[in-house]
Amino acid sequence: MKKSLQESHLSIPKVNLSKVSRMVITVILMMGICLSAASPITPVSSKDLGFESNSQLNETVNVCDSPIISSNTTWSASNVYQVPNCVVTVNADVTLTIEAGTVVQFGGGTSGMIISGTLTAIGADTSPVVFTSINDNSDTGGLDTAIPGDWWGIVMREDSSATFDYAHIRYAGSDACVHTFKDPVYNICYNRSQLDVRNAS
Predict the structure, then answer these.
(1) Dihedral angle sign, alpha carbons of residues 171, 120, 111, 126
(2) Hey, how many other C-beta atoms are within 10 angstroms of the C-beta on 194?
(3) What is the pLDDT of residues 81-114, one digit of tens each?
(4) How far apart are CA 150 and CA 175, in angstroms?
(5) Measured between alpha carbons, how far is residue 101 from residues 27, 48, 113, 167 in Å?
(6) pTM score, two decimals?
(7) Burial zone of 96 (CB within 10 Å; 0-12 exposed, 13-18 middle, 19+ buried)
């Protein structure tokens, strides 16, 4: 029995594995070419997926890093200016110019703007200047989850001046009357202010 087992052996033909591998790869490539010709791939754009493409890439600027504007300053439409938790103050004899298409976002009931100098916010029909909540991203291709009263508003102090044209003020009017917003002469502030003008022009 032992001898018969030793004498009987399997005869396995030698196979050139590299040749087989090349054949398999060739077949796969040919199948891919045939499938591509039968059903070409159609490029998918963001619009096909239901998203609006934002024609302008906006950089976010945290204005609270330097909220006191003490020299003439221009805010451009290439940025989104966010005021998350502070009050932006434009000093007397200083002009803040906000270009058409610029978005300024405020976060929190005690955030807002105080103008002691000059504010110029001149937009256009299709490119307004927007003052809105930090939760309103509708102008930058995002969602709008803001509610009225998300931020305080814009306060024009005595002897200040402003020019608004095609300017939107949205979701302001919180009732968080903090000391910062109080008039230095009358020591009061109007609750739920969106645009508070006091002896200004």
Answers:
(1) positive
(2) 19
(3) 999 999 999 999 999 999 999 999 999 888 999 9
(4) 10
(5) 57, 26, 19, 9
(6) 0.67
(7) buried
